[in-house]
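Schema walk-through. Below, the input block comes first and the output block second. Nothing else is stored per chain. Lengths vary across the set, and this one has 107 residues.
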Amino acid sequence: IHFKITDIVRGDDLKASTAAQLLLSDINHHSSFQKNLFYHHPLIHHVGGEKLSKSAGDKLEMTNTVRHDASTKIRLLRNVGRWLRLEESITSFDELLTVYLEKRKEG
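--- output ---
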């Protein structure tokens, strides 16, 4: 609410947390929070099958991999594009943002 964020993207494992936050915002009369667009994406997993997790220290590993491996970066961007139901083949963050914002304007 404070930062006027309108789009919240998080993993499927946080759906219950989102529901609790929406309930709390209703109880506290913060209707602007309920107007946010929430998108819960499928979880990203290691090759071994366990989910990537910031709390397990995966943030640095994932960030370094994406930063230094162009093919990983493009795959990640395309996955995000698919999760957002974008038809375009995304190759950069700027392109992802532009296409997403255009789609959002269209409704």
